[in-house]
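ESCALATION

Customer reports they have been waiting on this structure for their group meeting. Please prioritize. Original submission:
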Amino acid sequence: MARRTLNKWFLTAAATAMIAGMSLHMATAAPLAEAVERSSKAIEADTGRLIEMYKDIHQNPELGFMEKRTSAIVAKELEALGFEVKTGIGGTGVVGILKNGDGPTVMYRADMDANAVEEATGLPYASKVRVLRDDGTEVPVAHMCGHDAHVTWMLGMAKTMVAMKDAWSGTMVLVGQPAEEPITGAQAMIDAGMYDKYGVPKPDFFIGIHTAPGPVGMMMSSAGPKMAGTDQIDILFRGVGGHGSMPQMTKDPVVMASLAVLEYQAIVSRTVTPQETAVLTVGSVQAGADNNVIPATALLKANLRWYNPQVREQMIAGIKAVSNGIARTYGMPEDQLPVITMKGGSTPLVNDKALAERLAATMKGVIGDKNVVTEFPPATGSEDVHLLLGPYQDVPFDYMIVGVADPKVYADAVAKGLQFPYSAHNPNFVVDLKAIPFGTKIATVAMLDLLGKPAN
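Update from on-call: job pushed to the front of the queue and completed.
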């Protein structure tokens, strides 16, 4: 979809959405329409509590696998609602299971971790948190990707669904997932035995929702490939350290790493077919501490994005060849070539066609055709949510997107020629508070659609 068409979708949503108490179109069939109307009223009555919950989570962000406080909130809320709660899955993962008669099992995920970004929004509830990482570095922490909203939406939906148990039948499985940002949390939960050891039932449907800096009042449910596969790779160049005044007595890993950063770019631009999606980014260069000391090592942290597994292999092979070639050029022996460490990764995210179309049709009946985007090109962002299916890759999955920007702020940005007012992971990322009840409604409507009782 061209940028102009995409902005047209979002601007239309911004102009037509009735955000605070959305006028439900109710083109959906009864009894779903009745259930949606009831849920809307319940969420509106619960909005004040949800906003305070959101602010609390926002002010207390936690990095991946450090989400002890957030996971405790999820566990406590779900236990109070009568869910069977399982904690500590893959470290800080939480699963709540609620059985309500016969019917399908629907899994829903909310990721819990924040970013190592210093918030600059100036909001009265802005994060001021800083933490020490395992490597001893101190970093700021803030929810600049909306995971705080994701958790709030899930817990708001859970309360609404429990209050409306007469309107649905089946089993809800709600997952509080750690460490989405490093793309390691979903796999950690699977590796910990989420299904076999912890007894989480296989879902019949699986859905997730993510924020986007489009206007509040719009959402997307789009079929097909949506997000790229990704890999996190560390490349450690080893050298011989020494005095900065005598470089001839050293083997400088800073120079090796610097050359590698530049040469990596040619892997994509000169070896990968232009028709293929391929991104190779070096997000961190770490070496040395003093002006006059050549260090013994230099660390590069790289990230790949891809859709075709062959392109992935091509980029990985290229990184190895470039790194080893540079090290050899600077005189490093074979047993001291760069150490390449594969860290977190994920396959491309693909939405099931039938499920995406079903939920899109339902949402159109609730919030109006113009507020539901059904066509969206594959992006180079990545997710690990679908890895939570583990061995059950045949389960229909749909990952929806919900706008969280103030519609006026969004429209003003577009008028200035910007695609969005801010991006995810930006210090100025803002979830407008009107998005809290709206996102909760979207989550609830999706669950009611998949679990709702058929008409008599």
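Sent to customer with the following note: The longest strand covers residues 205-215.
Escalation resolved.
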